[in-house]
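Teaching note: in complex prediction, the entire set of molecules is handled at once rather than each chain in isolation. The prompt given to students was simply: 'Predict the structure of this complex.' The entities are:
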Amino acid sequence: MTPEPPSNFTQASSWASDWQNLFYFEVGIFVFFSVLIFGVILYFSVKYRRRPGNEAPPPTKDHLLLEITWTVIPAGICVVMFLWGALLFIRNALPPAASMEIFVVGKQWMWKIQYPNGRRDINELHVPVGVPVKLTMASEDVIHDFAIPAFRIKKDVVPGHYSTLWFKATKTGQYHLYCDQYCGTSHSAMVGWVTVMELAQYAQWLEESSDEKSLAEVGADLYRQYACSTCHDIGRGPSFVGLYGSSVKLSNGQTVMADDAYIRESILNPSAKIVAGYTPIMPTFQGQLDEEQILRLTAYIKSLAKQEGEGRKAAKP
Amino acid sequence: MSQALTEASVFPRVHYLNASYGLKSWLFTTDHKRIAWLYLAAITFFFFVGGAAATLMRLNLIEPQGSLIEPSTYNRLFTLHGLIMIFFFLAPSIPAVLGNFLIPLMIGAKDVAFPKLNLLSWYIFMAGGTVFLYSVLSGGVDTGWTFYTPLSSTYANSNVMSAAMGVFISGFSSVLTGLNFIVTIQTMRAPGLTWFRLPLFLWSLYATSIIFILAMPVIAITMVLLMLERFLHFGFFDPALGGDPILFQHLFWFFGHPEVYVLVLPAMGVISELIATFSRKRIFGYSFVAFSSVAIAVLSFFVWGHHMFISGESLYSGLVFSFFSFAVAIPSAIKVFNWTATLYKGSISFDAPMLYALGFIGLFTMGGLTGLFLATLAIDVHVHDTYFIVAHFHFIMVGGAVMGYLGGIHYWWPKMTGRMYPERWARIAAVMVFVGFILTFGPQFILGYLGMPRRYAVYPPEFQTLNVLSSAGASILAVGYVIPLIYLIWSVRYGPVAGPNPWGAKGLEWTTASPPPTENFTMTPVVTEEAYAFGTERSEPA
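The expected output is the structure of the full assembly:
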């Protein structure tokens, strides 16, 4: 599919318009000072060019007040830019609680997208308009960067960490998706499209593949396949019912929040954080599970949080 | 002036260039002036190698699908371009060529503090350069000049080891040069040459030397860790080995951002000299310009995290680094305002060095102002890793550092060779460099704003117009760089005789013959006024 690129540079997310205002302000500062410096240089160059009678000008005295002026004014402007940029950044640092979650795995040289209902795509992200969307992103190999210029956002996808990125699309259409962090030979081919759809249309699109299992169901299969159940179902390892989102007491007395990063770490490096009352006997799954599988297992564990008391059955979201 | 002088009357019979002959007299010289020429020859070679890589890249980018080369070749070209230009051209350019030549002359000394160490620095530099060229000739390296892990340590199949080794070795050359410069400026100034009579060029070189000594060891360590991980699989950076890729970025940019100021601070020093001489004015706000160099050197060590706003750095780190990045802009702004104010009521002439200096102020101003966009947390989120960054740092490094270098080379060429370069050709070339530069890198700001990522061998078709414009500008820029190469070589033999002080300048270096004798001054000069004593009674050229 080769959609027509948008004719002008659209602002297609809620953040984009905030971003644009600050950007225009800084462009204004840029133009003002560039014109000022070029203008003054040009003016002085003509007015004080060397000519008869002007060959040995007397020295000019230093001027403390002038020095203070052109230190304080730029400093003030810098403070405004710093605060404006920082406040905008802080306000948008965390995704709204009600965000819809989509999973992204970067890999040389493609983007693998997974939706909670099990639908999967490569280099194509579909999102509904007007709904906050949170991307949980992981990398299989090197550092990538998930960038959507029409939304004015990007975030590095660093191996060994989960990265999150969120946005609320405000305009339907099709927009470029790039890898912005150089990642090897076919870096410039690690591109795709983001399609923003009306909510109803999006729901329909999502169901096109309803015959597939949901992420949590596939995760439940993995849970049995990798024999996690042999310990975690019988109490040799901690149970996962109601785990996700709760706080976990560790054997060293600390308390951690059971989030995606905690679950991922506990699968790959089980001895890093031992739950109080248990012994560090779990083997590492580093090298046996890839990032996509870990995301599915996490989805399964998450589904157990939502239906406490109903036993260990994978849930349809 | 220079036209009226005849060779017999002012060209000294014996000077540093003809004091001895033969290849050995050059390769084993400890004369700082000859060592400057050794560096000049080496970095000119590297500049045109790096420039050739850029030319191929710009040609390839004329077509969205790449008109010339495969992506794997393109990736090797931009890596080579970045590494050569930063480590083997820009870092040694002004310090090792002009600094070596001028520091003893400007302070009235016979040589630098450690002449043999100075020669050793050049050999270390050449050893690093040779190892790096080996990595290029045996297949190249495709990690980008930033060597980000785990791409460089685990995934890349190119010659990372030899490239990293080349960078590792060449760093020692800079450390030793920095050490030499600091001791020389600190201990060997002529009687009467107090700190506040020093040319501002020396203040900026002093600040640069501090950065050399503090930052270069960090890149050396980083390269060692990278090589250990790649070769022996020590787990420093690759999460699969238990490391953290972000650690590499912290180490790299702790060196990398001060390094940017290593490249531009010396150029700022050159500009101060040029603006003063060609407007016949002492630099306005001398002490503010001097201390701003020191402020830049210090602050440059606290801004590295602005390369990592979107890498998952914590929010609080982001805030701190954003704040300091704005802070480092202030001393740069102070310099620009003071240079501009120096022109006020001056007697301005537009010889080629001055054209470069005025071009520098304009382009550096634009480069600095666009840096503020990148220091702003929110704005960086969109423009990071796009052509906006590429344009920004080329405004600083080419519009700033290279313009400063070319201005300096033209200004001191008569001192180095005893001959003038052809003024008309030089002005044509200076204007071509300025116009070509704006055309090449101006469109890249817009490309970046529209979201075109950097380091893309192929790109979406809607970006083609701006890319063609940029490539067209690059062709003008390239010609602007080749013209001086030709006429400067020509002028060594055929240029008009310059005489000791063709510009009517004030520094100590202009009080001795051109070219200077091997021992620089026939007797140790005694300094009674500052380096910019224009318009005072003593101001008429001696």
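Point out the following to students. Chain A touches chain B through 81 residues (CB under 8 Å). The first helix of chain A runs from residue 14 to 47.
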